[in-house]
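Shipment paperwork, digital attachment
Item: protein structure file
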Amino acid sequence: MFIAMNRFRIRKGQEAEFERIWRERDSHLNEVPGFVEFALLKGPEHEDHTLYASHTVWRSAEDFQAWTTSDAFRKAHAGAGASRDVYLGPPQFEGFEAVQVLKGA
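Attachment content:
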């Protein structure tokens, strides 16, 4: 299992717009082999921004890499620069290989 996360610093007062953008976008993730799950996470508020993270679970790091070079990826990110005023800088990517997974009953 591979977890891909992007952390976003969203300008104060732009949270609703950021969430709308993500809710309304067509991610194309279901078209890609190895995709397991996606979540948009809202984190703590700071003086000038609110922290968000996109959290995507993949069957493997190779499946994630294939996504980043796919037509589905290009389509999903086609309008990414249109709302720059919402962001306080670029997203920060973090990738994790799962070494232990526990599941509830």
